[in-house]
Design a protein that fits this description.
By secondary structure, the protein is mainly α. The protein contains 5 helices and no strands.
Length: 166
């Protein structure tokens, strides 16, 4: 399978991957393994209202999941391989990038997040995730990696199984 799947298939697989990834991250949060809520962090960029931050963040997270799915499918198409194990490997690398680079850089772009360079301020600020997201709990790295691996596995594996839209 060397060509890109149809747009409807990519949307369905992107949604399935995003739901799987989100479920793992929410489960880790609910089980107390991690306090990381990427939808809340993303939504908090746009509003200080916590309820709206969760709603806006979840909508943007869903759209972002679809966007990243397109990049995954472009990668699969460029190498001419759609498989669960390639998807898992790409998901692992994606998760590693999130933990090592994206989360630690978040305080520098998030208007309501403290950084390790900030002095105490009167207004409340979000705690920075830190390296590997460890400020949000010891289980955060494992949860993020598991979620990204499952995301990639779903995106690579569903086309391999021949599951396509009618």
């Amino acid at each position: 399978m060397n060509s890109l799947p149809p747009l409807l298939d990519m949307a369905i697989w992107g949604l399935a991957g995003t739901i799987s990834m989100t479920g793992i991250l929410f489960a880790a949060n609910g089980l107390g393994l991690s306090r990381l809520s990427i939808p809340f962090l993303v939504g908090g960029i746009f509003t200080a209202n916590r309820q709206w931050a969760n709603l806006i963040g979840f909508a943007l997270y869903l759209v972002g999941g679809w966007g990243f799915a397109l990049f995954y499918f472009l990668f699969f198409s460029s190498i001419g391989i759609y498989s669960w194990w390639i998807g898992a490997a790409v998901g692992f690398l994606h998760g590693l990038f999130l933990l090592v680079a994206a989360l630690p850089l978040m305080p520098f772009v998030h208007p309501r997040m403290a950084s390790s360079y900030d002095a105490p301020v009167a207004r409340p600020q979000l705690e920075p995730p830190g390296f590997l997201g460890l400020h949000y709990g010891g289980g955060t790295p494992a949860a993020v990696l598991a979620a990204q691996i499952i995301y990639g596995t779903v995106l690579g594996g569903l086309p391999q199984l021949g599951l396509t839209a009618p």
